[in-house]
Amino acid sequence: MPGDKPGGSGPDAGRVHIVTILVEHLGKSFGNVRAVDDLSFTVPDGVVTGFLGPNGAGKSTTMRLMLGLDRGEGRTAFDGKPLRDHEHPSRVVGTHLDARPFLPGRTARDHLRMLATEARLPESRIDHVLAMVGLAEVADERPKSFSLGMAQRLGLAGAVLAEPHALMLDEPANGLDPQSIQWLREFLRHYAAEGRAVLVSSHLLSEMQLMADHVVVIARGRLVADGTIDELVSQRSDVVVRCTDPARLAALLRSAGGAVAEEDQALGVVGLTTDEIGHLAFDGGVTVLELATRKASLEETFMQLTGDGQQYAFGEAS
Question: How far apart (Å, rounded) are the C-alpha atoms in residues 186 and 18?
Answer without folding.
Answer: 20
